[in-house]
Amino acid sequence: MTSGAPSQGLASNPSTDRDLDVARTLLGQESAALVELSRGLDDRFSAAVEIFAKVGGRVIVGGIGKSGQIARKVAATLASTGTPAQFVHPSEASHGDLGMVTAQDAVLLFSKSGENGELADILSYTKRFGIPLVAVTGSPGSTLGLAADVVLTLPDVPEACPMGLAPTTSTTMMMALGDALAVALLERSGFSADRFRVLHPGGRLGASLQRVGDLMRKAPEVPLVPHSASMSDVLLVMSEKNFGCAGIVEDGDRLVGIITDGDLRRHMAPGLLELAAADVMTRDPQTISSDSLVAEAVAMMAGKITNLFVVDDGRVVGIVRLHDCLRAGAA
Q: Whole-prediction pTM value?
């Protein structure tokens, strides 16, 4: 059976209705828990951000069970947004992986109860070597909470499963709090789109974060003609360069207009070839700078035009084609 959108004519049945009720109830409970989490944030959150911002090494992130799976995700998010981070499994830490934790690092541990026995060795290690420890737990008075330098306390709200046992609401709050730490650190460090592109070179995201200067065509490929040139010269350049347009320039490379295939059709009449480029061109065409994101260029061109002249400091330095952006995977 092929999956897809439900049929418009599919009759409702009690099982389907019950499934939707369960899903909506759970999402409502988790949404409410996130509101409680947000309301409870205080100076301790800023203290945790301060610890991680000052780290000379990495943020070591850990947890057991479902909390450990959240910790893996948080470590990946921190690393991808400019905060060096690594997941260390607390059980493996007890069998040699504590060697991955240095005095230049800080530790972030997730545990709802704060009483996981597997955390004991890494807690002792942080105390022995004076390594800052931030705990995310629902029990600030637990072994983990008492050992931490900063405790970020999860609100006392029930899990969303009917038995109140399966980690659902608690892990949602942990993940959201990890995202909040990562973004706060990103903001504090001034993490830029350029740096984001360096860390995300693959896929459509990496392509859209490229700069226009990386994809643009440069001289001698750029179709440029002087504003005083005849239309016969314009047609020769357009045919030779094969961009479907020509940039009209003064003083060598200062763009003053553009002539496209559409302009030619609108001016098609006897005597067209005797006109000057300035008589046919469209003035003040859209342009983009070479340091703009490719995603910006795609947004400007989509559905309207297929080429943009690239202009820096008033001078034409290249031309970027929608086709090249698409081929690079930017759209």
A: 0.62
CB 132 within 8 A of CB 107: yes
Four-point Cα dihedral 59, 65, 66, 70, nearest 10 = 10
User: Could you state, in order of their start, the residue ranges of all structural domains in the chain?
Assistant: 21-191, 212-327
- Integer Cα distance of 108 and 62 in angstroms: 6
Decide if domain 21-191 falls under CATH 3.40.50.10490.
yes
pLDDT, one tens digit per residue, over 109-139 is: 999 999 999 999 999 999 999 999 999 999 9
CA angle 156, 160, 162 (to 5 degrees): 120
| Residue range 212-327 in CATH 3.10.580.10 | yes
Q: Would you give the DSSP letter of residue 118?
A: G
Query: Which own/partner contact pairs does 273-277 have at CB distance under 8 Å and 24+ positions apart?
Result: 273/230, 273/231, 273/232, 273/235, 274/230, 274/231, 275/230, 275/231, 276/227, 276/228, 276/229, 276/230, 276/231, 277/225, 277/226, 277/227, 277/228, 277/229, 277/230, 277/231, 277/233, 277/234, 277/246, 277/248
